């Protein structure tokens, strides 16, 4: 069928643009199909099931124009989450823009670990360092209404995005502060400190590829070995945790051993690393030793 002379149906649009996205971004056909459907569904304000159930329908011109501009952005490499302006994390919908890192599924492990150490019947205090969109802080706050969460980011723009997310998601027990890691915390101490800091090596070629090109580099890269922020956080955290408080850190696929070493060196015991759903050691935890332990 000649698409130039016949208005394209939803099925034809999906087939055609799936191939374009796959080629432009070196994605598999199934990844490209999913992305095409997600963009088309968003432009038409329907869900993906609608696209399949109404495969023979032709979209209105105005909606098609909206879809085409979203498609062009994706073909130029822009991440789907920035085009849609939202990303799901821990069952919640977060607003995202290029001022914040796009929440990753593997980071849900940090929320699981924090919740597993937080009782739900008494007040606790949690600090989230480098909060970005606020995803971790807000997910914890929503699941532990008695817990007070303070979340910090050095970027004022990120703090704005996080505050908007807390407002929309009605997370009332989380406070956002602009600051550099623990520097703004004075003498405050917490039961748990959690962080998904930058941890990619600053000369890693991946930083110039794919979605990462569009994300804030300050949220991704940390020094020559990628561990600069993790070292800083481990050193600061011991001043801001109760004795036997937990530090919970996300790190790169090959940094678990180095992280455990850094935590031990900074006064943490019972260090352990946990794997994400892909089976990659993705988070390391440590318990702050009490003075006489
Ligand atoms: N996990 C992210 C990635 O490799 C990096 C996030 C981070 O540095 N905290 O794409």
Number of strands: 9
Q: What is the helical fraction, as a range of percent?
A: 25-40%
Helix-and-strand structural type: alpha/beta
Q: What ligands can be seen in this structure? A: glutamine
Q: Work out the helix count.
A: 10
Which percent range describes the beta-strand content? 15-25%
Q: Which spans have pLDDT < 50 for at least 5 consecutive residues?
A: none
Provide the spatial order of strands within the biggest beta sheet.
5-4-3-6-7-9-8
Distance between the termini: 76 Å
Tell me about the largest β-sheet: 7 strands, mixed
The general outline is elongated
Explain what this protein looks like in three dimensions.
The structure is a single chain. With 293 residues, the protein is of the alpha/beta class. 37% of the residues lie in helices and 19% in strands. It has helices spanning 10-25, 29-44, 48-53, 61-75, 80-84, 108-116, 135-143, 156-168, 228-237, 256-265, and strands spanning 86-89, 92-95, 125-129, 148-153, 174-178, 190-195, 241-250, 268-275, 281-288. It has a seven-stranded mixed beta sheet, sandwiched between helices. Strands 1-2 form a two-stranded antiparallel ribbon. Strand 3, helix 7 and strand 4 (148-153) form a beta-alpha-beta unit. It is elongated, with a radius of gyration of 22 Å. The structure holds glutamine. Glutamine (GLN) is lined by residues 104, 196, 198-200, 212, 220, 250.
